[in-house]
């Protein structure tokens, strides 16, 4: 999968390399234009376009499944009120990294996380931290749709009910309706809210899970390939939703589609074999990647 | 010896026919034509064609042989013996058979007995040869016939598939027929019992006092089911009160909280509870738990009998803990991990996740496990024999001795060999009642499962 049309890419890359050069002239350490592709070992970082608040910071995160190491020294800053996309070939550790952020890896026996991840400056692996509260602040949409074997209504109402977000039935109805609408599912299910969520099609289930996650209004939303089972129209609805959520929330999305990463995200991180290879503003990663592996991946040569 | 020969014959036929079919199929394939079925299937089909007739012949002999042999022996019996009653006639025939088998018999042998024995032995040998020969002959015929049929277009695979289906069907028919047979025979005997005692007196009677068969038919006693039924319900109920919470919570702990290593140790240890012979539990109840309970009772100022519904129920509850815990644990672990993750990911605590997602999803299976435990409790005999006090009196205090249906069945069938009196026949009526109870429990459980099922994939 290539990022965009070849001629397109060249045109944009010309302008952004100029900007890149300007940036690096200030530092004046490396002649970037002369040798744009590196294969160096540590992560290649491009400075972010605007300086945003970093809501979430990961430092030297390593993850082990038993003896096997799945992530190697990943350090990543996730900007607030923006979308960060994680890309990379299958099995490179995107899901693993995502699950570190709301400590879902705790539920996997034999999984060990080292390093430091902070949310608003607070270490989320601190023993005194309440994991349950963390997870209510950091919501997650899983790679595989996993609706509960309950009615569609109950699926969406599950989170708000647990956290006591609705004081009355009508309030709950409103939350459910609003969440389903934002996930683009309302029109399809409004007449069958009492039917089982598992009776929906794969794509509908995925949107149901998105509705379920946003129903508790988390501050950070982790989405693991939320559009993998969706048609272009439903994908557009979800991308619109992500765009809209961006105004208030911090979003991290895993995607296998370069176009989607380019469309929805402001920052992109490229993983390969458990290592964070390159990260930076999406346009930079897409158009002037500086690491050879990144370029190979976004032009479809690996992955 | 004979069974060895039969087995050898069948094995030889199997090997021969399969290889014939297989080789036939392969030879055809080697000529380059495309076969509908792989040679393997041709082999199996030929083997079936060969073994089926052979097995039918042997089966027919197994069914009809004894009758034929009996008729043969009868023809050798002198007329005065033939006119004896069925008991003595059977004994005479058995003597002849023993002589024929070469086991020898007690007492002196009459000349006609020896003659009949020798003749029977010859007849047996002859018949065996005939049967083996005809089985082998028919088998070979079947083999030749099936071997000739092999052709590229022969749908051997479909035929084999069809036969396998037939075989599976036959097996399930056996299971169903056995159940039906048991029910029918229970019914028959129970109906006989009801010619002595009116069903109303049985099902609604509150006094159990069957008397003894030796006291004569004049005093047939009283057969009120209610004291026994109540005893059964009370003991099983107490057992479930112990087993359900402990078992279910154990299962939840093991499946959701315990580490893999702890689980690997704890689960087998708990399962040992189910492996302890029930007589040992009964012993334990009688010697340890009962006296302990009665001491506790006297300290608290309430009279607790050492042998009582409470003692039996408590110990039985311990016995069925693993039925509940082990099965529920397996069932809860089968709930997909992703459901648990989904709930935890929304900020639910582990116990909220268990209550709201895991238990509902696992409910049908858990109900099944509980049902199994209840049937086990209702059918349990040994513990109750020893620890419940065997007192078939309608009492509502669990600290008093009771008796149950199973214990009474044991009492009525032991020490009393006359199976035609109401004292013994009542056992069948009781058995039928037990059967009905489990049937109703099953139906209730099915209803619950259907009503509350939450589908997951
Ligand atoms: N529960 C687990 N136990 C052991 N190894 C695991 C587990 N989950 C993931 N891994 C391993 O960790 C590595 C990273 O997996 P991860 O699921 O993070 O990949 P991914 O980037 O999300 O891939 P995909 O795009 O296919 O979803 C893989 O090699 C995988 O085999
Ligand atoms: Mg993944």
Automatic annotation (TrEMBL), chain A:
It holds the Pfam family ABC_tran. Residues 56-298 form the ABC transporter domain. Residues 1-22 are annotated as: Disordered. CDD domains: ABC_PstB_phosphate_transporter. One of its GO terms (cellular component) is membrane. InterPro entries: AAA+_ATPase, ABC_transporter-like_ATP-bd, ABC_transporter-like_CS, P-loop_NTPase, PstB-like. Gene3D superfamilies: P-loop containing nucleotide triphosphate hydrolases. GO terms for biological process: phosphate ion transmembrane transport. GO terms for molecular function: ATP binding; ATP hydrolysis activity; phosphate transmembrane transporter activity. Keywords: ATP-binding, Nucleotide-binding, Phosphate transport, Transport. Residues 7-20 have a biased composition (Low complexity). PANTHER family: ABC TRANSPORTER I FAMILY MEMBER 17 (PTHR43423:SF1). Belongs to the ABC transporter superfamily. This is Phosphate transport system ATP-binding protein. It comes from Pseudochelatococcus contaminans.
Automatic annotation (TrEMBL), chain B:
GO terms for biological process: phosphate ion transport. Belongs to the binding-protein-dependent transport system permease family. CysTW subfamily. It comes from the Bacteria. GO terms for cellular component: plasma membrane. Signal peptide: none annotated. Part of the binding-protein-dependent transport system for phosphate; probably responsible for the translocation of the substrate across the membrane. GO terms for molecular function: phosphate transmembrane transporter activity. It is a multi-pass membrane protein. The keyword Transmembrane applies. Its main location: membrane. This is Phosphate transport system permease protein. Residues 229-445 form the ABC transmembrane type-1 domain.
């Amino acid at each position: 999968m290539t990022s965009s049309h070849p001629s397109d890419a060249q045109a944009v890359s010309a302008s952004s390399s100029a900007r890149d050069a300007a940036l690096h002239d200030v530092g004046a350490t490396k002649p970037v234009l002369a040798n744009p592709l590196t294969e160096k070992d540590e992560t290649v970082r491009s400075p972010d376009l605007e300086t945003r608040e970093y809501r979430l910071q990961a430092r030297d995160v390593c993850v082990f499944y038993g003896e096997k190491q799945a992530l190697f020294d990943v350090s990543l800053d996730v900007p607030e009120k923006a979308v960060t996309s994680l890309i990379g070939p299958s099995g490179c550790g995107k899901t693993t990294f995502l699950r570190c952020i709301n400590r879902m890896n705790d539920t996997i026996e034999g999984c060990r996380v080292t390093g430091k991840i902070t949310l608003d400056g607070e270490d989320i692996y601190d023993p005194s931290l309440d994991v349950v509260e963390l997870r209510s602040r950091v919501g997650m949409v899983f790679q595989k749709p996993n609706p509960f074997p309950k009615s569609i209504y109950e699926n969406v109402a599950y989170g708000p009910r647990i956290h006591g977000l609705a004081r009355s039935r009508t309030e709950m109805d409103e939350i459910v309706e609003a969440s389903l609408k934002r996930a683009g599912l309302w029109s399809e299910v409004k007449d069958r809210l009492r039917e089982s969520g598992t009776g929906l099609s794969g794509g509908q289930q995925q949107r149901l899970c998105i509705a379920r996650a946003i129903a508790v209004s988390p501050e950070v939303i982790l989405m693991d390939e939320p559009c993998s089972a969706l048609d272009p129209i439903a994908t557009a609805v979800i991308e619109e939703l992500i765009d809209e959520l961006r105004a208030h929330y911090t979003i991290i999305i895993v995607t296998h589609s370069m176009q989607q990463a380019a469309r929805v995200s402001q920052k992109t991180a490229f993983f390969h074999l458990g290592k964070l290879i390159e990260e930076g503003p999406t346009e930079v990663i897409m158009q002037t990647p500086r690491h050879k592996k990144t370029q190979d991946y976004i032009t479809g040569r690996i992955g | 010896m004979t069974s060895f020969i039969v087995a050898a014959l069948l094995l030889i036929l199997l090997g021969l026919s399969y290889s014939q079919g297989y080789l036939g199929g392969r030879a055809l394939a080697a000529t380059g034509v495309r076969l509908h079925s792989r040679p393997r299937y041709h082999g199996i089909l030929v083997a079936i064609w060969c073994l089926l007739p052979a097995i039918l012949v042997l089966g027919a002999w197994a069914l009809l042989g004894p009758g034929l042999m009996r008729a043969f022996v009868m023809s050798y019996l002198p007329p005065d013996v033939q006119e004896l009653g069925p008991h003595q006639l059977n004994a005479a025939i058995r003597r002849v058979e023993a002589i024929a088998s070469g086991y020898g018999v007690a007492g002196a042998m009459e000349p006609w007995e020896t003659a009949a024995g020798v003749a029977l032995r010859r007849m047996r040998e002859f018949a065996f040869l005939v049967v083996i020969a005809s089985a082998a002959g028919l088998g070979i015929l079947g083999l030749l016939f099936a071997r000739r049929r092999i052709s590229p277009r022969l749908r051997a695979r479909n035929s084999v598939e069809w036969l396998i289906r037939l075989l599976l069907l036959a097996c399930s028919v056996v299971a169903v027929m056995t159940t039906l047979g048991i029910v029918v025979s229970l019914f028959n005997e129970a109906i006989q019992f009801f010619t002595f005692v009116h069903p109303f007196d049985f099902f609604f009677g509150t006094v159990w006092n069957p008397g003894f068969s030796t006291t004569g038919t004049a005093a047939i006693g009283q057969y009120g089911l209610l004291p026994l039924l109540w005893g059964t319900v009370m003991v099983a109920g107490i057992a479930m009160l112990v087993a359900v919470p402990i078992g279910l919570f154990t299962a939840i702990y093991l499946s959701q909280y315990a580490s893999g290593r702890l689980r690997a140790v704890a689960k087998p240890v708990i399962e040992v509870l189910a492996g302890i012979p029930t007589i040992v539990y009964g012993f334990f109840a009688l010697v340890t738990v009962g006296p302990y309970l009665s001491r506790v009772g006297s300290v608290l100022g309430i009279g607790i009998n050492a042998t009582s519904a409470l003692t039996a129920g408590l110990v039985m509850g311990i016995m069925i803990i693993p039925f509940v815990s082990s099965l529920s644990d397996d069932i809860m672990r089968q709930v997909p991990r992703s459901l648990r993750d989904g709930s935890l990911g929304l900020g639910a605590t582990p116990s909220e996740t268990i209550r709201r997602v895991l238990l509902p999803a696992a409910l049908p299976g858990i109900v099944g496990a509980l049902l199994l435990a209840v049937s086990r409790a209702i059918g349990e005999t040994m513990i109750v024999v020893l620890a419940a006090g065997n007192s078939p009196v309608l009492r509502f205090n669990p600290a008093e001795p009771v008796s149950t249906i199973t214990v009474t069945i044991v009492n009525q069938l032991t020490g009393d060999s006359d199976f035609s009196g109401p004292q013994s026949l009542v056992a069948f009526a009781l058995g039928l009642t037990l059967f009905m109870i489990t049937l109703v429990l099953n139906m209730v459980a099915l209803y619950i499962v259907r009503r509350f099922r939450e589908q997951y994939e």
